[in-house]
Design brief:
Layout: H1 3-20, H2 32-40, H3 67-107
InterPro entries: PDGLE_dom (IPR025937)
Transmembrane segments: 72-93
Domain PDGLE: 6-95
Length: 108
Amino acid sequence: MNRNGRFLLAFLLVALVVAGVVSFYASGDPDGLTKVAEDKGFIEQEKDHALKDSPLGDYAVSGVDDERLSGGLAGVVGVGITAVVGGGLFWAVRRRGGAQGGARDQRG
């Protein structure tokens, strides 16, 4: 494995640990928007998100009763999805750029 591959693997492992373990210790205080809504008096207008009952809704995995495990799994799944989608986009753009560069080389 080359240097870039080792770096990406280390980055992915750190992201998984942060999402799966450290995220449990995040602040329980409300986020900025909720705090402003409370301070300005329009928190009553808050509505649940349309995907609240989805498998990863509300930063948890539905069907897992242990709060710590559920939140950790949601974080790990989120990192995995982000890595696959981001990596796929990067690979597609890189491949396309390589094909265009190759065509230019043949013309010039």
